[in-house]
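Supplementary Note 2. Why include the ligand at all?

Several targets in our set were suspected to adopt different conformations when bound, so apo predictions alone were not considered sufficient. For every target with a known small-molecule partner we therefore ran a joint prediction. The input for 2-acetamido-2-deoxy-beta-D-glucopyranose is given below.
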Amino acid sequence: MMAARTVAALSCLVMMLRLSEAAVYKVGDSAGWTTIANVDYKQWASTKTFHIGDTILFEYNPQFHNVMRVTHPMYRSCNNSNPISTFTTGNDSITLTNHGHHFFFCGVPGHCLAGQKLDLNVLRPASTTPLSDPPTSSSPPPLTTNIPAAEVPGPSPSLAASLPSPAMARFTAVVALLVSLVFANFAS
Ligand SMILES: *[C@@H]1O[C@H](CO)[C@@H](O)[C@H](O)[C@H]1NC(C)=O
Ligand SMILES: *[C@@H]1O[C@H](CO)[C@@H](O)[C@H](O)[C@H]1NC(C)=O
Ligand SMILES: [Cu+2]
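The joint prediction is reproduced in token form.
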């Protein structure tokens, strides 16, 4: 019983870590990047959760379309005069390397106005949750916790350095998987 529950918990953990790995999203799904299917790309983007490291794939006929990455004002006005970057292969993979909004449209005249435009929001990396929340009681926090970090010499007391890196997360996932396999053997 205990083992089965542990396995379930660890499997959950492994799943969560898997989900945190990079994903590839084909823009517009089967319709791709086009004007003829009347795809609502804003709606398409709103059904996804984009993370740093994910890839978006624009698939289209390069005779008729392209992909321009643009600023927000250019996106709003469909102004294609000065894109940040332009992609023209018809099979363009773009890896999302920073958080915040990313604006794209097709630079062929009229296509952006016809709705061939994409605004997607990449989430911030998971916030580094403090190990202990501030006390919710009305009493003032004890003075002893008030260490002025800037004046402490040597290694910073900040936990940031020891927070799990992606490599560490993968390592943890592998360990969790192995442990769950061992437990599964015990349980059966
Ligand atoms: C388009 O943007 C450029 C600068 O990137 C600007 O000079 C130009 O006036 C804009 N065109 C329109 C029609 O807004
Ligand atoms: C587009 O590129 C991806 C890799 O980025 C590849 O898997 C896929 O087969 C390509 N599709 C076409 C139609 O070339
Ligand atoms: Cu187009």
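DSSP finds four helices and seven strands in the chain. Residues 35, 64-65, 106, 108, 111, 116 surround copper (II) ion (ligand 3) (CB under 6 Å). Comparable summaries for the other entries are listed in the accompanying table.
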